[in-house]
Design the sequence.
């Protein structure tokens, strides 16, 4: 199987879906002539022309709404945000329009629409460019939210997102675009709403998604050397969440650490912990712990930025704590 | 002979325009009555006084064109061809409403007549209409989309972002500012740096015009030019149609006394669009008292029927609560 980057996996997904369905088009800042701020759309303008690969002005609210309107009359827009940080300007369209149109219209207007782009922190981009928005977006009924952590998942989930008749949020990662993995050349999709057991173990569950999947897999490998066997549940989809996969893992291991990129308060992890306490109360041998970003805006300076981010060391410490192992 | 035929056509057209405006007026008077009785809840914004705008503009659209509007949407919904029954049932919050009782006053939708809402956030639907225009061009069609907004929306970022894209990309969107002079209780002079809203079209390379919104013929004339432009080469237009609402912003404020005087309201009431058309038709003797009485009686029956229908329609069942959040994907 070819070994390609996460970036190229997304590019394949876009190209294949645009060939498959001429209602699919890509729009956003720098997606055309510039080939994408992160080169995800490289070559697509040349291949599909400017009606289907649309460079927009820097006008997030406006072009997100263009996507909503086009979806209302049957096109299948893929709206790229250069980063999800900029999508805050478009939240009215995502939350008030895309997520609610079907409901407000009594089922008349589905929204076959994808909003995608990199989410969370990269390196030293500081407070306004380093935010993980999954808890905001997953809060909204009417949206689906996927967060692929590997190139294979990126291609399969983006293709599913484009084929879905509901608005789907695709959370990518600047730090993921260069990562490599095995990705089939051919067409395949990954179902939205299904988690994936990325690593198996019976001592402790790590439940995570997106960029943190790589961290969790490193934790698994490092702890394996100490004889600690970690189950890594990659949610893949944050909404709707695969609660059965979470509870199946926790009932097996009796211990859990929830790892997420964003802030603690009202975060994704809080929701996961709620499912665990409801469905696995009698199976738990320790309180569930969470690993997340420090409760501060992201700083610029290297050392304190590192201190703010969730990482392998913090996750290992949490796993050992729920296993009552002295550090 | 030709002159006679033209006069007959004109009088038939005038009668249909008058009918359209009176239907909206009587329907909304009934809505106000139902609101007072508690049959309609929530926010409810009446269109009374502005009927020549909806009638004038929508009377020229084709069935395959598209309409998006604000939360002041009952009149346009009916003129576009939605049944008064489905609009009234929606207002009553009943299952036979156009949006199954889930939208209410502010969210009229009907895909069968390309009525794409009924939107509650000021300015929020303007980018969507721009997207509909994009889709028309994407498919190479010759439809147009009309996007209504109040004059207060013109100060909103969504307006400027949308007009910039429509002007840049040449999209067949007709942006209609219904300038009724007040954004809720704030006079336009207190909210906008310019009193000539239509001139903002110049900034975005699009044709624009100021129109007398109480004169249904003036509205039609400007609208026809805009439609021709859109169909010919996808050119957008910005129309500022000057009108006035005779009621409060919503059902919760008085028509005058707080932010505008009774004298001002009375002055504008003298240019009631329905009375202006009636007077013209009476002058050219194309409308007799008997014609008018028959029209009013027919409309009264339609409006009463919409009430009876809505009143008899059940509330949405509890299962409906969780329906329409997601659609089953078939692709």
Sequence:
């Amino acid at each position: 199987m070819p070994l390609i980057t996460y970036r190229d996996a997304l590019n394949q997904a876009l190209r294949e879906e645009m060939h498959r369905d001429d209602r699919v088009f890509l729009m956003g800042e720098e997606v055309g002539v510039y080939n994408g701020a992160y080169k995800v759309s490289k070559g697509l303008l040349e291949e599909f022309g400017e009606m289907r690969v649309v460079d927009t002005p820097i006008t997030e609210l406006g072009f997100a709404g263009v996507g909503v309107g086009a979806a209302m009359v049957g096109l299948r827009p893929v709206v790229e945000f250069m980063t999800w940080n900029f999508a805050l300007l478009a939240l009215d369209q995502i939350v008030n329009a895309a997520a609610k149109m079907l409901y407000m219209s009594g089922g008349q207007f589905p929204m076959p629409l994808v909003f995608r782009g990199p989410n969370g922190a990269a390196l030293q981009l500081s407070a306004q460019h380093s935010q993980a928005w999954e808890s905001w977006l997953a809060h909204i009924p009417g949206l689906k939210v996927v967060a692929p952590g590997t190139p294979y998942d990126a291609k399969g989930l983006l293709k599913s997102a484009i084929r879905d008749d509901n608005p789907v949020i695709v959370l990518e990662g600047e730090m993921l675009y260069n990562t490599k993995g095995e990705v089939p050349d051919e067409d395949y999709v990954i179902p939205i709403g299904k988690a994936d057991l990325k690593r198996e173990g019976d001592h402790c569950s790590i439940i995570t998604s997106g960029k943190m999947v790589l961290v969790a897999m490193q934790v698994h490998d490092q702890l394996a050397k100490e004889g600690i066997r970690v189950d890594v549940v990659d949610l893949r989809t944050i909404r709707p969440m695969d609660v059965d996969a979470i509870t199946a893992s926790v009932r097996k291991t009796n211990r859990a650490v929830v790892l997420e990129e964003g802030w603690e308060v009202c975060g994704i992890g809080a929701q996961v912990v709620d499912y665990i306490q409801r469905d696995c109360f009698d199976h738990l041998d320790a309180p569930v712990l969470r690993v997340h970003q420090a409760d501060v805006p992201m700083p610029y300076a290297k050392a304190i930025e590192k201190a703010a981010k969730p990482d392998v060391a913090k996750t290992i410490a949490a796993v050992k704590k729920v296993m009552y192992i002295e550090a | 002979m030709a002159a006679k035929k033209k006069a007959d056509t004109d009088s038939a057209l005038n009668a249909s325009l008058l009918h359209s405006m009176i239907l909206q007026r009587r329907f909304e008077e009934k809505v106000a009555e139902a609101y007072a009785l508690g049959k309609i809840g929530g926010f409810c914004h009446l269109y009374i006084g502005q009927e020549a705008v909806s009638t004038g503009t929508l009377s020229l659209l084709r069935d395959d064109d598209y309409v998006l509007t604000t939360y002041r949407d009952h009149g346009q919904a009916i003129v576009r061809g939605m049944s008064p029954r489905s609009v009234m049932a929606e207002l009553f919050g009943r299952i036979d409403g156009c949006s199954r009782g889930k939208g209410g006053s502010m969210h009229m939708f009907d895909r069968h007549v390309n009525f794409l809402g009924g939107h509650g956030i000021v300015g929020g639907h303007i980018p969507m209409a721009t997207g509909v225009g994009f889709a028309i061009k994407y498919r190479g069609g010759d439809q147009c989309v009309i996007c209504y907004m109040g004059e207060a929306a013109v100060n909103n970022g969504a307006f400027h972002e949308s007009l910039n894209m429509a002007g840049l990309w040449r999209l067949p969107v007709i942006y209609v500012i219904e300038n009724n002079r007040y954004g809720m209780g704030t006079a336009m002079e207190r909210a906008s740096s310019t009193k000539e809203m239509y001139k903002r079209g110049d900034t975005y390379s699009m044709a624009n015009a100021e129109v007398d919104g109480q004169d249904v013929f003036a509205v039609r004339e400007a609208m026809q030019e805009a439609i021709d432009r859109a169909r010919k080469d996808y050119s957008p237009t910005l129309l500022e149609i000057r009108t006035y609402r005779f009621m409060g912003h919503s059902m919760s404020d008085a028509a005058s006394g707080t932010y505008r005087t009774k004298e001002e309201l009375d002055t504008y009431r003298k240019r009631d669009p329905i009375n202006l058309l009636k007077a013209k038709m009476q002058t050219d003797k194309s409308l007799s008292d008997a014609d008018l009485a028959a029209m009013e009686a027919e409309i009264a029956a339609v409006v009463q029927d919409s009430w009876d229908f809505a009143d008899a329609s059940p509330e949405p069942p509890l299962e409906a609560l969780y329906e329409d959040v997601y659609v089953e994907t078939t692709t």
In short: Chain A has a mean pLDDT of 98. The radius of gyration of chain A is 20 Å. The longest strand of chain A covers residues 24-28.
